[in-house]
Write a structure and sequence with these properties.
Layout: E1 2-3, E2 13-14, E3 16-22, E4 34-38, H1 48-55, H2 60-72, H3 84-112, H4 121-134, H5 141-156, E5 171-172, E6 180-181, H6 196-199, E7 200-203
Parallel strand pairs: 5-6
Antiparallel strand pairs: 1-2, 3-4, 3-7
């Protein structure tokens, strides 16, 4: 399928459309299912089921914003530089620190074969800050390796509880919206019984007749 080109792009973009439903008790009201449009056309390298299951992780980006802006930087801390180059430098520094912390979380989860979501970012941040306070300044590679091992052990003792399965109705409180208004029945919305990958059911999209 070729998406229509914008004025800024001369050539159209080839996209792939995945149609699927959530085969779960909480998804019974979704009559139209879902359509996922992606620029990854290789179905063997990017299977439809995995793509559909991954799509539900998109909301994690909001948690990442909170990690950087609220927890790592601090809610009342602003960028202090007075020049554009200085601001860019501070932003890149925050991003690099966040990447390093996330890499530590991934390495820690991999040692036990766990989901990285089970490792707390705030605990990782606190542990990293404590290690810097205990051993300030430069230190040898051997000390760095021992510090990483201690950090991993510290984080494994403070794992997050398993996330409960949750579902929310696709409604809003505002009137000026394409979604339905929130009603009384939406307050007791049926919760899912399967995880995202388990609930995905790939379907064939209906083609309109000429």
């Amino acid at each position: 399928m070729r998406a229509s080109s914008s004025p800024a792009r001369k050539e159209p973009v080839v996209v792939r459309v995945l149609a699927y439903r959530l085969k779960d008790r909480a998804g019974e009201g979704e009559t139209d299912g879902y359509r996922l449009v992606t620029s990854l056309p290789d179905a063997r390298r990017y299977p439809a089921r995995q793509m559909a299951a991954l799509y539900r992780e998109r909301c994690e980006i909001e948690s990442v914003f909170a990690e950087i802006k609220t927890h790592q930087r601090g809610a009342r801390v602003v960028l202090s530089s007075k020049t554009p180059d200085g601001i860019h430098q501070q932003i890149w520094a925050h991003l690099l620190v966040h990447h390093a912390l996330r890499e530590l979380m991934l390495r820690t989860a991999a040692t036990r074969g766990l989901d990285p979501d089970g490792v707390s970012f705030t605990e990782t941040l606190r542990s990293a800050r404590r290690s810097v306070t205990v051993t300030p300044g430069s230190f040898s590679p051997d000390l760095l390796v021992r510090a990483l091992v201690m950090l991993e052990q510290d984080l494994l003792e403070r794992l997050l509880p398993v996330r409960r399965l949750r579902s929310q109705p696709r409604v809003v409180k505002r009137k000026m919206s394409n979604y339905h208004l929130k009603q009384t029945e939406h307050r007791s919305w049926t919760q899912p019984t399967r995880t995202g990958p388990q609930a995905v059911l790939i379907t064939r999209p209906q083609l309109a007749s000429p």
